[in-house]
Amino acid sequence: MTSSELWTRATADRYDAEEAENSSAAVLHPTLDFLAELAGDGRALEFAIGTGRVGVPLRERGVPVVGIELSEHMAAVLRRKADEDTLPVTIGDMATTVVPGGFTLVYLIYNTISNLLTQVEQVECFRNAARHLEPGGRFVIELGLPPLRSLPPGQTAVPFDVSERHLGFDTVDLVEQMLVSHHFTRDGDDGRYRRANSRHRYAWPAELDLMARIAGLELERRVADWDGAPFTQDSAKHISVWRKPT
Asked: Considering the entire predicted model, what is its pTM?
């Protein structure tokens, strides 16, 4: 067991509804195109597959997908969409759990590597990806950059969403490289808000490149989004691809 926080049944049951926009065709198609091209004729392994937001439609594209998921509740939601024969899922953490066979693609998206709250565990996640990859295979991570440029001196919190039904802001510990996302969500029309928060360890691209090197992987490509836009100093996130040498 790693330091990742477990998703509860209540959170898992409402996850797909809350992520409806990110599950739309406009958002998903570039992601699926990107991943399917890298997988080629081989198999794909998704770390932290969750409810199958990406894994299920990628399987429908014809890519054989296998998943690892820490939360049994999240995996149970996925199981309503695809059976075990169609999309096998192993319950376990993404830093140490091993599944049979080799893969041309291992991917970890939507900031999920930051759920591992120590550098040691993040390094082990890279090693686990390399362990599963066939020679020439790729490891893909999608990760946002911490909003440090938005923090004036002396301030530790920055809003990331202010909308009618949701208020979100991040608090940052610059010494420990920890970020806590705070969410206030209005579920009904009675004016009440549901409060939740999640902890994350942020890591810079250069730090991830060093983790990859420790695991025997080489940086192949880094872009700003799934459409392949150039990664610049103004990018809010990055999609990075590391390759296992042949």
From this structure: 0.92
